[in-house]
Amino acid sequence: MVTGQPMYAAVCAGAAAWLVLDRERGLRRARLLFAGGGGAPPWDAGMWRRRLPAVRVRREWLCLVVAAVLAVAARSVLPLVAGACAVPLVGRRLRAAARARERERRADAVIALCGAVAGELRAGWQPRQALFWAARTTGALGGEEAAVLAAARFGGDVPEALRRAAREDGADGLVGLAACWQVAVDGGAGLGAGLDRLEGALRERRDQRERLRAQLAGAWATVGLLAVLPVVALAMGWALGADPLRVLFHTPAGLGCLVAGGLLETVGLWWAGRVVRAGEEQ
């Protein structure tokens, strides 16, 4: 017979995960609610952070929560070992996803910068003034913003400063901006027209990337389904009145199936992800 212990443990783990993930969202709502008010609320988060040691919960540590639930349900230490091994792998994947989001945000900011500079030029501003105000508005220059703005304000080498800023992830469009600036300075060509064409080219490249991502959404859904299938199989076993965790963790045949299935699942996910990422890079 199946006891209620796994169900209770799963409910507790789900509640803990929800609280951890909802914490940052609640803090953002509170900051927006009290922004611009007459004073800080009595429970001001900044005050408590100054008084108490900072504790930052990373999402990859939820692997240990899930592993602890499985360890209690299966009465085995193996899920804890697997969860500890999964923490750095999941953390690396989450950091890669964060870098990808930052890269896309920077690329969008570069497009906005080109459009803003072109707009300021059409409004009658000088190129250096237009770049100065547009860069401060869009935030596309990242860590090199101070150097580029100094070059724009005090007559420095603006194209070279833009090329240095283009070395950051997602900012490669600044190379085109530097080239347009160089041509306009050396040959007297219209900078605004060049920036309009550059903005159009960067937008087209971004739209092409988004269309490819939409076409590969089904493939990524297949990868996710492949990852969830073992969990579905365990749930079906519980629903049929079996005890799959006891079989997997406390019998020789079950341990063999667990090791073989885990290896096959890992290799399958890696290979499917590799195929889909290769399609994205085309």
Report what the structure shows.
This is Membrane protein. Keywords: Cell membrane, Membrane, Transmembrane, Transmembrane helix. It comes from Streptomyces lavendofoliae. This protein is mainly alpha-helical. Among the domains are: 102-209; 216-282. 79% of the residues lie in helices and 0% in strands. The protein contains twelve helices and no strands. Helix 3 (62-74) runs antiparallel to helix 4 and helix 10 runs antiparallel to helix 12 (252-280). The two termini are 53 Å apart.
Short recap of the structure:
With 282 residues, this protein is an all-alpha fold. It has helices spanning 5-34, 45-51, 62-74, 78-122, 127-138, 145-154, 158-165, 173-187, 191-215, 217-239, 244-250, 252-280.
What is the strand and helix layout of this fold?
Elements: H1 5-34, H2 45-51, H3 62-74, H4 78-122, H5 127-138, H6 145-154, H7 158-165, H8 173-187, H9 191-215, H10 217-239, H11 244-250, H12 252-280
Helix pairs in contact: 1-3, 3-4, 4-5, 4-9, 5-6, 6-7, 7-8, 8-9, 10-12, 11-12
Helical content band: over 70%
Q: Give the end-to-end Cα distance, rounded to a whole number of Å.
A: 53 Å
User: Element order, helices and strands?
Assistant: HHHHHHHHHHHH
What's the number of extended β-strand segments? 0
With helices defined by DSSP (H or I, 4 residues minimum), what is the helix count? 12
As residue ranges, the low-confidence spans are: 1-8, 23-55
**Major sheet:** none
Give the DSSP E fraction (strand runs of 2 or more residues): under 5%
Name the shape in a single word: elongated
Rg from Cα: 27 Å
**Which structural class matches the secondary elements?**
mainly alpha
Provide the residue-averaged pLDDT: 78
